[in-house]
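Give me structure tokens for this 322-residue protein.
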Amino acid sequence: MRKAIKNTITRIVGNLILRPYFKFRTRKPIWLFLNRKARRLFISHKPIINETQQNIISILFKDGVAQTHIEELFLDKNKLSELQQYANGLREKNTGAKTSKTFLTYLLNPNPMLDFENIITKLALDERVLTIVNSYFEMFGKFYYFTLNITHPITEGVEAMQSQRWHRDPEDIKMLKMFIYLNDVDEEAGPFIYIPKSNLENKWNKIFPQRPPIGYYPPDGELEKIIPQNEIKKYTARAGSIIFGDTAGLHKGGFATKKERIMLTIGYAPSSSPLAEQYIYPLDIKKRLATLTPAQKYAIILKPSKLNSFILKKFRKFFKYG
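Here you go.
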């Protein structure tokens, strides 16, 4: 009884006070003000953009999602096989973490070590990637998250759940994730699916919008009544394909029916986002920082507001989605 009363009070506080607070923070003028330092740093450290990067950035602004290949972006034919070998080694060790998403196997712990010699850390902080991220954000962004997962085929008759359903990520009005397929992904392997132009200030941005500080899961079947089928894109692609997606836009994925999908996900957010980093710093982090560029340093040392992070973590489940 006491717990039920506490939950009710928490829900009321969340929806009457905290939700308007986050909604206020994500209004464009306020959001720009909160990110003023990151914007100034980006302007003072404007990156050199090559043709491949410029093409990706332009498509991101246009659609909120862009596709390339690991060989095209990194100009390295060995990087995919290195990633695959790393994933296979983790799979053999079976050192991953359990998750509420029963269709996934996590090959990494929820808060892995930020190992600067590891291929994933190198990819996440690669200047070619940060140039794309920061140019899309129009500010220095932060790297907060990485995970390497196996998506398993679902049992016949099981309905889509959680991230397999249409949704918007909750943490900010602009987000960016880099997805890398480590195996060939066709429709039977649960490809990433996105609605182009559902990102900030674009055609479908107002359809089932975010509810700061939470995302939005439209009722099943309702989205298809509004958005034409030809405007929904399935990213079936060969191994090594990279998808940059603004996950504040409408997306889903991982509904594998017959084949597994192995995918690396690396997440970035604007500096004002309440997201805290989801990795552990090594003991020699200060020494490592001395070797990094300004964009790389900002990406990993920016600390979010402890209050906002606490609210997001502790209160999210009490917010209404409607």
